[in-house]
Amino acid sequence: MKHVLTLLSALLVLGFTVPASAAPLRIEITEGVIEPLPYAVPDFVAENSAASKVAKDLARVVAEDLSGTGLFREIPAGAHISKITSFSSPVQFADWKAINAQALVTGAVSLQSGGRLVVKFRVYDVFAGQELGNGLQFAGTQDGWRRMAHKVADAVYSRITGEGGYFDSRVVFVSETGPKDKRKKRLAIMDYDGANVQYLTNSANIVLAPRFSPTGDRILYTSYETGFPRIYVLDVASVGRRVLEQQTGTMSFAPRFSPDGRTVVYSLSQGGNTDIYRMDIGSGRSKRLTSAPSIETAPSFSPDGSRIVFESDRSGTQQLYIMDANGGEPKRISFGQGRYGTPVWSPRGDLVAFTKQTKGRFHIGVMRTDGSEERLLTASFLDEGPSWSPNGRVIMFTRETQGASGSSSLYTVDITGRNLKRVKTKGGASDPAWSPLQN
Amino acid sequence: MNTGQYISGIGHIGLIGWLLLGDAFAPAPEPFDVTEVAVVSPEEYERIVGMQQPPETDSEAPTPPQPSEPEAPAPQPVTTPDEPPARPERDPKPETPPQDDSPDVTEILPPEPTEVQDEPPEIAPPPVEDVVVAPKKSLRPKPRPAPRVAPEPVAQPEPEAKPDEVVREEVRKDVAGETQKDESDATAPEEAAKEVVTEAEDDPSSAPVSSLRPKTRPSRPTAKPEDTATDRRSAIEKAIAEAAGPDAAPADTPEAPAGPPLTAGEKDALRVSVQRCWNTGSLSSDALRTTVIVGVKLFENGKPDVGSIRLVSSSGGSSDSARQAFEAARRAIIRCGASGYNLPKDKYAQWRDIEMTFNPEKMRIK
Amino acid sequence: MKHITRAVLLTSVLALAACSTPDRFSGDEVNLGGVGDPGSPSDPTSPAFFQETVGDRVFFTVDQSNLGGEAQVTLDGQAQWLLTNTDYTAIIEGHADEQGTREYNLALGARRANAVQEYLVQQGVPSSRLRVVSYGKERPIEICSHEACYAKNRRAVTIISADYNS
Question: By C-alpha distance, which of B189, B191, B183 is closest to B144?
Fold first, then answer.
């Protein structure tokens, strides 16, 4: 009897053909939305009373960093239902879900005697109800609290997006004052968000286009200190400088480091002709890389140091070319309508950013290193001189406004073209160069 | 019986046996670490936390003189070594503080992969939940402020309303493309409402009580087979019952009606529902090149069993980018399924197990 | 003119003329007095004369560094003056308007300055007396953002300075 029943049920099941173990339903999702991810970062917990101010300040800088990317949207404290009062207490995810915070950053700070600051944080995926990765703890001096906030934000950003961070970085630029025909320029360095500005030169001489070394310890720039534009290298820590190229009858400018920090590639003008040279910084020996009667300038190394992208007007108008880092036949990569200049290779190696002039307007754009997929990210009266963030996701550049009262400012834009915004600087600013991520 | 029938019988029985017992086999391995965690009682948790005192390594180097500014800091990342049972606090590893010349010590990124896996994440979420397995309904409201998540979203107290408005407004401003705003409008109030009606109420099995917690992953092998086993048994029982007679009503136990095949329209509705919550805006370009297939089980009310969401496979990227892509997909499934996907109950068996392929090709940053 | 007169005039010019440093930029007016006074614009040996009567600058079209007819006339005059007043050296500043990127404009200014230098050398001025520098778009004379101003900024200016070492 049992036999028959088993057999009967087996047959019946199969008779219905749709077993519970059928192949799962398969659907394909190919479109989604693109919007800033809502997150919350309540004030960090102050583990001792001395830390209460910095605990709040830290959380604010983290929020400014994240929201400043345009990829995150903060749910402000006023909307929070529960408070984080202890770093180790369990998180009431329902409370954060209720306000639609998809990510939550919690932190704790203690400020010990001697100014030693310890900062801990965690980041949670609220809807999945779990921590994302593992939290971290930093220790340092109180003075360095902003850097610690940037490091927290970098870790959170990186954990959620998968991109490397870029908040713990500095920018060297030219600080400008005065009217267009009597501009005073001096080198300055600041945190990427505009804080902690330091001046590196006085404004007695025109200085132009500073660039960081790969480790951020030195800066190359052009100065008219001798009456002629010449390239200098400056040590950031000591602010000491020395000239690199000073042959009589020549002018040099547009210097950039190689990725190993040992070579400088630059432009040298002699007899009215401008070409690209490279120099070993240690020995001072230089080598000419181009010898065309046209203007060759604005060179930039690829991140692996094997190639150089630069601009040349050998075709009649300024265009972009790529050549081997030791010279050799350049290959043109720009073909659109207009003039292309100031190419800069992305630290990820995949894109070249540039300035394009067309129909009386200036644009910052990017293209693949073979010249394909050109995209313009900005448009204005005068945008120029892009510089890449350490993670290759954001570009900073100079925007100058027109007319007698025009002035220069620094702007950033995401490589998708979104989130264009001004970098806060006191007074005018131009020629920004982004440092690598600080270690 | 002749040989043919005999063989056929064996075959059928074998098939049924496989159906019943198949899930005892291990689930597909995941590309990233699954952590084993010990369940800790609240008392033990308190004890562990109390005993925690992270000693800190002091390896600050003297700062070089700066032109005119206070020095940049010497932040050190300090990570904790493993120590079961996991604690929320972390002991700094006694690493040799790197170079004295550079004040800046950073091993933040490296430590992450070497980070202990059997760590707090599992504990930090309320241990309270662990203990509460049996009396799920009575204890459920405790961690969740049930009153605050009362059904009417509109009638929410101030804090609720604000997030709603914030959500609504800002979504409009921030939209830069083909985003749809409705889901944000709908979601916030809906979430509030749905909290009350969480997994606990409608669950056919007890497993989902702890399904929100990551530690359910290890427990999933036990939970799932129970779950599906129950369902399958019910399905078979139902099939038998139905076959037995036209007036055989579906048993009260949750069943898995199969019904006629799902229509394209129904499948499409599901797809569209998930799409609204799939936010690729914060994904890296690597993750945007990664296609992930995510498996999920839905309860009969259409809500996803959060603990069942798993990465089935990925292609086109590294394991890191797969993780990011998976997390975004998971958020999409959870958020848009918060009040249950709109699928016909009478075809439950067909949509109980779903594998969704998230292909970001069209969403890519060029 | 007698040698003594010339010497006296030169000496007074030297005494009166400001030493120019290479990175001073042109545009400063020099007015040293009335007609016929030594050092005044009507004194053919004065820098003022060079600036105002001979013409110390030439202009270029957009992106170009070639010298048009008018420019050549001016430069002929400059060459003449320099050959006559041998105690002066000159530094030629090349400039560009703001409608270009920074490095390219530096290079363009260099081309323009060099074009002037080569022309003067062709007219017989020893190259040892000439130097070139480029300011790119850093030192505009006119600051409106229209062609009327741009045209004035696209220039090469010859700045003479007394050479105490000759």
Answer: B191
Do C and B make contact via 3 or more CB pairs under 8 A? The reply is no
Please answer whether residues A174 and A86 qualify as being in contact, where contact means their C-beta atoms are separated by less than 8 angstroms.
Answer: no
- In chain A, count H helices and then E strands: 4, 32
d(CA A325, CA A343): 15
Residue A206 CA neighbour count, 13 Å, CB half? 23
Residues of chain A with CATH 2.120.10.30: 170-434
Helix, strand or coil for residue A147? helix
Contacts of B184 in chain A (CB under 8 A): 100
Q: Do C103 and A206 touch (CB under 8 A)?
A: no
- Are B16 and A13 within 8 A, CB to CB? yes
Residue A392 CA to residue A349 CA, distance in Å, equals 9
Contacts of C119 (CB under 8 A, 6+ apart): C67, C72, C75, C79
Provide the CB-side half-sphere exposure for A435 (13 A, CA).
22
For residue A261, count CB atoms less than 10 angstroms from its CB and return exposed for 0-12, middle for 13-18, buried for 19 or more.
Answer: middle
State residue A283 phi and psi, 5-degree precision: -90, -20
Assessment of whether the complete model's pTM goes beyond 0.90: no
Question: B touches which chains (3+ CB pairs under 8 A)?
Answer: A
| Complex ipTM tops 0.85 | yes
Look at the alpha carbons of C72, C75, C80, C83 in this order and tell me if their dihedral is positive or negative.
negative
DSSP annotation of A380: B
Q: How are beta strands A72-74 and A37-40 bridged, if at all?
A: parallel
| Domain match, B303 and B351 both | yes
Between CA A97 and CA A128 the distance in angstroms is 10
Q: Which are the contacts of A268, defined by CB distance < 8 A and separation ≥ 6?
A: A245, A250, A251, A252, A274, A275, A276, A277, A288
Residue from B350, B225, B22, B16 nearest A12 by CA: B16
Six token digits for residue B73: 């800091």
What is the spatial distance between Cα A107 and Cα A123, in angstroms, rounded to a whole number? 9
Residue B42 in any domain: the answer is: no
Place of tokens 């007095």: C33
Best probe of the A interface among C102, C137, C141, C145, by most A CBs < 10 A, is C102
Name which CATH class applies to A170-434: mainly beta
Judged by CB atoms closer than 8 Å, whether chains meet at A272 and C113 is answered as yes
- Answer yes or no: are the C-beta atoms of C57 and C157 closer than 8 Å: yes
The burial class, CB within 10 Å (0-12 / 13-18 / 19+), for C15 is exposed
Total domains present in chain B: 4
Q: What is the pLDDT of residue B42?
A: 54
Amino acid at B93: K
Please indicate, yes or no, whether residues B250 and B262 belong to a single structural domain of this protein. no
Nearest Cα residue to C155 out of C72, C94, C69, C76: C94
What is the amino acid identity at position A315?
Answer: S
Give the largest CA-CA distance in chain C.
52
Mean pLDDT check: name the lowest of A70-79, A159-168, B193-202, B246-255. Answer: B193-202
In a domain, B83, yes or no: yes
A37-161 has CATH 3.40.50.10070 classification: yes
Q: What domain range is C88 assigned to? A: 3-162
Q: Which residues of C touch A357 (CB under 8 A)?
A: 99-101
Predicted confidence (pLDDT) per residue in A89-141, tens digit: 999 999 999 999 999 999 999 999 888 999 999 999 999 999 998 889 999 99
Q: For the purposes of burial, counting CB atoms within 10 Å of the CB of C117, is it exposed (0-12), middle (13-18) or buried (19 or more)?
A: buried
Nearby residues of B229 by Cβ (< 8 Å), 6 or more positions away: B20, B23
Determine if residue A419 is left, alpha or beta; phi over 0 gives left, psi from -120 to 50 gives alpha, anything else beta. left
Dihedral sign for Cα A26, A31, A33, A34, please. Answer: positive
Considering CB atoms only, which of C115, C139, C142 is closest to A272?
Answer: C115
Residue A233 pairs in a beta bridge with A220, A242
Phi, psi (deg, nearest 5) at residue A166:
-150, 10
